[in-house]
Amino acid sequence: MAWNRLTPAGRVLAVLLPVLAIGGALTTALLVAFGGAIAATIGANLPIVRFLVASVVTFLISVPVAFLLIYMEMKIIALMNLRIGPDRIGPAGAVMSVVHGLKVLMKEDYTPPSVDVPVFTLAPVVVYLASFMTLLVIPFAPELTSMGFELGLLYFFAIGGLSVVGLMMAGWSSFNKYSLLGGIRAAAQAISYEIPLTLSVVGIVILTGTLSLPKIVAAQDGSFLDWFIFRQPLAAIIFFIAITAEANRTPFDNAEADQEIVAGFATEYSGMRFGFFFFAEYVNVFIVSALFSAVFLGGSNPPIHINLNPQILINLSALGIGLPLIAGIAPVLGTLLFAAPIWFASSRVKGWQALVAGFLIFGGVSTAAVGIWAFVMLPPVASLIWFLIKTFTLVFTFVWMRGTLPRARIDQLMGFAWKWLLPASLLNIFATAFAVLIAGR
Amino acid sequence: MDRRLAALLQEKFGERLLTPVRQRYDESEIRVALADATDTLRTLHDDPALRFEMLIDLCGVDTGEEMQVVYHLSSSTSGDWLRVIVPGLDRTAPRIASATFMWPGAEWMEREAYDMFGIIFEGNRDLRRIYMPDDYRSFPLRKDFYLADDASRSPAAGVRNMERAGTPADATAATVLRKSPGV
Amino acid sequence: MTQQMRPSLDDPRVAIPAESTWYEPAPIPQTERQAEFLTLREGEMFVNMGPQHPSTHGVLRVIIKVNGEKVVDLDPVLGYLHRGVEKLCENADYHQAICYTDPLEYVASLFCEAAPVAAFEKLMDVEVPLRAQYIRVLTMELNRIASHTLFQGWMALDLGGITPILWAFIERDEIVDMLAALTGQKLLYNYYRIGGVNGDLNHEFMSRLGTWMSRAAAQIDSNLALINENEIFVRRTRGLGVLDAKTALKMGVTGPNLRASGVPYDLRRDRPYLVYPELEFDVPTRDEGDSLARYLVRMDEIKQSIRIIDQVLHEMPDGPVMAKLPRLLRPRPGRAFGAVEGPRGVYGTYAISDGTDQPFRLRIHDPSFVHLQLVGPLTKGNLIADTMAVMASLDPVMGGVDK
After folding, report:
1. Tens digits of residue pLDDT in A270-282
2. Helices and strands in chain B, H and E counts
3. What is the pLDDT along chain B (183 residues), one digit of tens a residue?
4. Contact state of C167 with A82 under an 8 Å Cβ cutoff
């Protein structure tokens, strides 16, 4: 049989091709037979399908986001510490965090003998679910919101608060005093900071009259002076401090203070279960940054609306057969255009070197041109880019704080929440309501 | 060399001193009997002319024939240094009054002397092993404790176990390798 | 009554009594103090920190009795690093003994050499050449700076800040490399000899020292600026673990910890050794006696050390660096106590000679050992997190504590 002489890749192809052919044929047949019915079902239940698709996509993007943030943190803190940081795997060590992810996948997932097994196993799942479910209401762009429903902000606080349950479960079930202390610290801290966190946005709710995040973002449309960080500065400060505590970040990372209680609630966890906690922490950082930029930094609104009124509206279909011709000729012409000055500039540059450089420059210039064009022409892209710029600025701030600040003590932390943040947020609500009453919106 | 200090010590303690005050470099040294130790230390600490308020060091010494406890005192006001040697502790059951009544910081140093020599400090609230495990039986710094290497040059033939179960009482039955009665 | 058996977790084929749960049997109290410590009241529990714990410097084990977050009592357990150095020294000759005392305090090991060398020189009536004395002062002050910069980083790390320790290591690495160029070792220098030092200053050391001295003050200031004014750092250390002067004297505290309590006691000034009387320096003190004061006193000492190094470099004479001594050292019977002011306090060595070539008894007094006693009294009633802040500010090194 020829099977034995095939290379592994050949064997894969030999298996896959018939399967794909048969599967394709069957799918086609099914679609022909029931396509109408499926389309009708989808059409009838559009919100449900949209929700399912959105959840899957959200879940899928949460992992790369965590990888990106872990890499960012490793590299930025390394630079602040005058170290090099990861530099081996991938360009400038960029794949390092993916390898970390693979590492936690492959490590032994050890369950200590005296833990409460069901609770111990469920805890990381609860923590991870709670953090990625809040991604659903983040308004990345006006057209890119998974669930733009009316109670988005409330949903966010409700689901975000669930992660404490997971941390308590982990702390309690681990049969470890460090874990217990960590879990209790996490619970106390989260409950205390939930209150100023929620109260600080009440002022904005008064101003906008809605809890829907897309509508809050829309209310900040205009110049950057319309952002709520300028209209509600006190609320912004309270909110920022409270989300730092909510996301368990330095200086409020008491729940996993490694100098005091080893790793807090995660002490007994290893392998992928620890990985869940770890990922959840970074997804949380991304989410709270995204929420801050949505609520206070105008979300996907640009700081200043510049109306360029682009007139470069080429009707591509009007070109007909000319389009492929242009697509074929443009790179050649562009390469020559950029290569010529390099070739003429110095006699030491060989012809092929000039051509390669010209091609690279053309590639860069055309990509940038297309990018700018997309930025200008497609509102969702521009909005998304603005949103991500704001979010990652905040993520950088969190990393920066981690590299700079020591940890606050637990009693100072709690005292700060109850004695300062809570009265300040109440004052903010009062002042906002008073202003609204006087000025009448 | 502070002659004033020597004269003062001679005057204060007089007949209590077992040997005359010895002074060498910047150290003065007195020897007092076991019974006078506590009184002497208290006088040294409290007397306004002496004021040796700092206990720099407390250690045990095994001369092979007897045990000693040595205190190094310093005065934070005059900068004088004094060594107080209390000789004549019985090797089989060394006992001495604790210095923790005056220097609470002596607690661990006494624990160390107990751990290493088996000297019992009466009045120390926490006299237990500090370096060695709780179930350890012998006292490593005594001169009859053999290192593994000593077996080859031991007067007694054969190899002794390094960690020999024993109490101070039956420890004396072992051969003392090195004696220095003059210390 | 038949005993319940269950399979062992390590080997399921082995059956062990089911009563032997995960809990260790409670230890039998041996002393009054231990009995008091082991009695748990309502709401209290023991938390065992160490010997493997991220913030116990070295292998210290601390049993903390907590009530919630509050530390009720605390009992350090030592001995995990005990090497029996004193016994080893009794079986080594006088030169070898220096190698044994060297690794006691691996952070500032030149001081652990200087103390026994001082004692042996008194035993043998050796006059150290003047240049060797200056070299000792120079290297010791460098080592003091290295130790204090590391302390700064550790202190910040124990409070949760990760950057200062890596900044502090820049200075420490430079000093360590410098000393390695001089002595051939990076950590355990083994540089001092009875009657002098091992070798004269070499070119690499001097050029490195010159480069470093030209930027040291500014660099150290920038390191200090990282945390000195940090609100969180100051709030976590000010008024914490207050040690008053009277208690400090009674507890036998020496060094920066004593000076932070307001007692200006410095061996370099109060019991001068080597060429310190000829050098000009201040003894920084503070009156507060809290963790912040202990930290700031050390930071002030760094500046004084730089000042001393500057003077030493200007005043160092030429000449031999080693006294003429017989190869085999047999001091007359006698006793001597050598002490130096180290970065943590008074390092003392009590040496007894019986006329042979080996010390009859070599007692080593390490200040960290005394200071570690204070962790209990100073942290009682504070929070778990404060234990770390107090312990870090006392700056114990377990190599010296455990001997």
Report:
1. 888 888 888 888 8
2. 5, 7
3. 577 888 888 888 888 888 888 888 888 888 898 888 888 888 888 888 888 888 999 999 988 788 899 999 988 777 788 899 998 888 888 889 998 888 998 999 999 998 888 888 888 888 888 888 777 777 888 877 766 554 444 343 333 333 343 444 444 445 666 776 666
4. yes
Tell me: the pLDDT tens digits for C240-295?
889 988 899 888 899 899 999 988 888 888 888 888 988 999 999 998 889 999 99
Contact status of C161 with chain A (Cβ, < 8 Å): yes
DSSP letter at C59 equals S
Beta strands in C211-280 (DSSP E): none
Q: What are the structure tokens assigned to A37, written together?
A: 């019915």
Contact C22 A257 (CB under 8 A): no
Closest CA to C158 of C256, C54, C66: C54
Would you call C349 an interface residue with chain B, using a CB distance cutoff of 8 Å? no
CA–CA gap between residue B12 and residue B49 (Å, rounded): 10
The pTM of this model reads: 0.81
Tokens of C197: 């030092």
Supply the angle between the helices A322-345 and A351-377 in degrees, to the nearest 10: 130
**Of B125, B96, B114, which Cα lies nearest the Cα of B38?**
B96
Instruction: Give contacts of B107 with chain C, Cβ < 8 Å.
Output: 373
Mutate to test the interface with A, among C48, C56, C70, C166 (most CBs of A within 10 A): C166
The residue whose two tokens read 């312990």 is C391
State whether residue C12 sits within 8 Å of chain A by CB: no
The answer to whether C370 contacts B105, with C-beta atoms less than 8 Å apart, is yes
Question: Which residues have CB under 8 Å from B148's CB, separation 6+?
Answer: B162
ipTM of the complex: 0.84
Q: Which of C105, C131, C137 is nearest to C118 (CA)?
A: C137
Hey, are the CB atoms on C157 and A403 less than 8 Å from each other? no
8 Å CB contact of B105 and C252: yes
How far A11 CA lies from chain C's nearest CA (Å)?
Answer: 43
Task: Supply the DSSP symbol for C331.
Answer: P
